[in-house]
């Protein structure tokens, strides 16, 4: 292998390992569920992506072949991670709203409540006399 390929592989491995470590620490150390979602869905996804690119570069430089396995793994990961995080967040917000769970305030403070200055619309019924409420009548 060439020296340039070795340097690229080492940099990608260190970058990927760093992102994976930071994402894993975020998953363990952050206090609330919504904050814990960012660790595995953002940093760990980028870390694994860098590790897979390092694998592609290694096999190309060492054996002279392109491998599709890493590309398929990356594609599957980048498609499923945001969707699963979105579903987990929706369930968590629904359970908070119905009072099924209680959670300590996060580092960012308490979440905005409906009816206040910071309104949010997850699982909220349409209000009267709005386009969404009159569309089905």
UniProtKB/TrEMBL annotation:
InterPro entries, per database record: PhaG_MnhG_YufB
Organism superkingdom: Bacteria
Transmembrane regions: 6-28, 40-59, 71-89
UniProt KW keywords: Membrane, Transmembrane, Transmembrane helix
Protein name: Multicomponent K+:H+ antiporter subunit G
Parts forming coiled coils: none
Chain positions covered by the region annotation Disordered: 102-137
